[in-house]
Amino acid sequence: MEPLRSSDPARVADHRLLGRLGAGGMGVVYLARTPGGALVALKVLLAEYAEEPGFKERFRREVEVARRVGSPWVVPLVDADPDAEAPWLATAFVPGPSLGEAVAAYGPLPERGLRLLGARLAEALGEVHRAGLVHRDLKPGNVLIAHDGPRLIDFGIARAPEDRTLTATGLVVGTPGYLSPEQAGGGGGGIGPASDVFSLGCVLAFAATGRAPFGSGTVDALLYRAVHDPADLDGVPAGLLGVLDRCLEKDPDRRPDAGDLVRELTAEDAPRTGEATDDAPRDGEATDHAPRDGEAADWLPGPVARLIAERSAAALALPDIEHTLAPADAPAAPGSAEPDTRETSGSPEPRDARPGGRRRFLLLAGGAAALAAGGAGPGGRPPGTAVPGATAPRPPPPRAARCTPSRCTVTSAARSGRRARRRSADCGWPSRSSTRAATPRSP
Asked: Residue 6: what pLDDT?
């Protein structure tokens, strides 16, 4: 997995992107985490292709096919939005490598692994065919390896046999080297479930030898060999030569169907009773002779099994979604009816989480009262110190000034005359002259 680039989004819909799993000509595949915490492979169609009706219709078809096909050997669809500005789909994440990557790095599979690989891919194709579709692009890159068996992916060009929208103009759609002769011809005629069986034979030949059965080279050379030349099966285990020969027949009518392949590839594990097996699987149906999950433990070479274990451990160590609670007094979007406390994802910037309104006032008032009550005691606040948050007391109103006989400067400044009497009356203390005038004389 590669880290996200600066041009990559952080999220697609409700899915948080964690890294890049790969990129192709039409889109990018990300490792993402769903809102529920599950890991998914999220495929996003590039914006320039999303504007073209043909590519968008192909993407929509891939979503529809993935919803119709149900098999334990097909990667299940988790979520999708083919009508988005950048269409996307999410499938369950398989931590293992592709078949092409595993064989290129660690060599061909043993015969037991080849049988299990072929039987379970045939079961997956049987489900596709029962849905009335043809995969049309079965190749090592579209097969993922898990500890219990393969997983088939990519239904981008899957169509009904009678649907010729991709081949009506002679366009060859698929991967040269793994196309059937009828696909390589480019006319579209004869394409059906047998075409997928031919491609499955090519995939098994690659897994058994480490090379494509029609070699390498230019596209024209590969298409010509698929139509006219026999497949190169040197190095294929002898027990599988007959099965692959029938899968790679040029005539589609002579190829086995998916159910026949399941029976032939699991026949070695069937009980030798000598009785006819009338209950043989048809069209990819599972049987009691197919390898079980416990029997699939040793179907892979040791290095491939260790690689899957390492990738599984790395997937478990990926960061999970962190859930936080937004404060109740956070401003809501206009017109929204969300509750005061709502769950969010990620690690948002810290916000002011102080209690609002009347609750804040009561807390401050209670704290001020407690500090004021213990201010004069031992260890309390010294008298006269302002209490934080409390209102300072108002000073008492000034008292009216009064004069005394010894300090009344107005009376002492003028003891006689009208001015002295007026000022004496103003200060409220009688002057000496007025006292004498007010005292009656004795006869």
From this structure: 92
How far apart are alpha carbons 147 and 342 in whole angstroms?
A: 40
- Which residues 6+ apart lie within 8 Å of 179 measured at CB? 172, 198, 199, 223, 226
82 Cβ partners below 8 Å, 6+ apart?
Answer: 56, 59, 60, 63, 89
Half-sphere exposure at residue 171, Cβ-oriented, CA atoms within 13 angstroms? 9
In degrees and rounded to multiples of 5, residue 227 shows phi and psi of -85, -35
In what order do the strands lie in the sheet containing 11-12?
A: 11-12, 15-23, 27-33, 39-45, 88-92, 77-81
Spatial separation of the C-alpha atoms in residues 182 and 196, rounded to whole Å? 11
Chunked in runs of 10, what are the mean pLDDT values of the chain (443 residues)?
90 93 84 93 84 76 82 92 88 94 96 96 94 89 94 68 48 82 77 94 97 94 94 96 96 95 79 41 45 64 93 83 49 50 41 49 56 50 53 59 51 50 52 49 50
What value, to the nearest 5°, has the Cα angle with vertex 68 and ends 67 and 73?
A: 85
Catalytic residue among 8, 14, 79, 137: 137
Q: Is 137 a catalytic site residue?
A: yes
Residue 159 to residue 142: CA distance in whole angstroms = 16
Phi and psi, residue 284, nearest 5°: 85, 10
Provide the CB-side half-sphere exposure for 125 (13 A, CA).
Answer: 33
Q: Is the pTM of this model over 0.70?
A: no
CB-based contacts of 88: which residues, under 8 Å, 6+ apart? 12, 13, 42, 43, 44, 45, 80, 81
User: What's the token pair of residue 200?
Assistant: 């499955």
- Residue 170's SS3 state is coil
Whole-number Å distance between alpha carbons of 303 and 295: 18
Task: State the chain's mean pLDDT as an integer.
Answer: 75
- For 379-428, write each residue's pLDDT tens digit: 445 555 555 555 555 666 655 555 555 555 544 444 555 555 555 455 55
C-alpha distances in angstroms, 372 versus 47, 253, 290, 343, 368? Answer: 68, 100, 84, 41, 6
Q: Nearest 10 degrees: CA dihedral of 140, 152, 125, 175?
A: -40
Token pair recorded at residue 190:
């004869």
Token pair recorded at residue 171: 């366009």
Residues 6+ apart with CB under 8 A from 160: 132, 133, 134
Instruction: Determine if residue 336 is left, alpha or beta; phi over 0 gives left, psi from -120 to 50 gives alpha, anything else beta.
Output: beta
Residues 345, 323 contacting (CB under 8 angstroms): yes
